[in-house]
Amino acid sequence: MIPDGSEEIATRCCQLWQLGEVPYGQAWQWQQELVARRRETPELEDVLMLLEHPPVYTLGRGATADFLKFDRDRAPWEVYRVERGGEVTYHCPGQLVGYPIVNLCYYKRDLHWYLRQLERVVIETLAVYGLNGERIPGLTGVWVEGHKVAAIGIKVSRWITMHGFSLNVNPDLQGFRRIVPCGISDRPVGAIAQFCPGISVSQVRATVADIFARVFQVQLYEKIEKT
């Protein structure tokens, strides 16, 4: 039986794709393919993709180009407009990106609940490293000591999710200076490494996978790494 939100969540299997550095366009294509298959066959397993991107800017479906501080025709890196919600953000190596492809019909048909669960994954990950992750009312994401360390932007179609979250572990934050990140001009962007010097993406990737499994009550099993 598919729970309606009032019943206990069933344990599902979820494929874990442990990826390295993947061009944004390739990862976007994989997401679209995974979502299309699950729209046709809703009982397929969920997928969690964990990866990094080369430097790239992405804008949500309704994002304004006013938050770009450069001429898009002479952009320093690739720029994509995609179907997620939210404004402009920046991805680069040292930032862990998570793309959960999950069918919310097996969890809870509530987008706000899902966003809060993604924030919870980040907050509990930060706690492992002794950091207090915080939410800010009216905004989506996670902050540490006033610095935004995680951004979240999703797309949901027939209750199947795509896009997801990005967590700054030890990236070069310079690329954020060329935009108004997430349309928020008065709050700085930060990274875990500011508070935990020497931390690596591989460390945090393992922690995120474990906590995602607990928060969403799924059994993760690793798929062969894509190349």
From TrEMBL:
Record-listed substrate binding positions: R84, G85, G86, E87, V88, T89, Y90, H91, A151, I152, G153, G164, F165, S166
Site positions (Lowers pKa of active site Cys): K148
Coiled coil: none
Active-site residues annotated for this sequence: C182 (acyl-thioester intermediate)
Family statement: Belongs to the LipB family.
HAMAP family: LipB
Biological role stated in the UniProt entry: Catalyzes the transfer of endogenously produced octanoic acid from octanoyl-acyl-carrier-protein onto the lipoyl domains of lipoate-dependent enzymes. Lipoyl-ACP can also act as a substrate although octanoyl-ACP is likely to be the physiological substrate.
Protein name, per record: Octanoyltransferase
Origin species: Roseofilum casamattae BLCC-M143
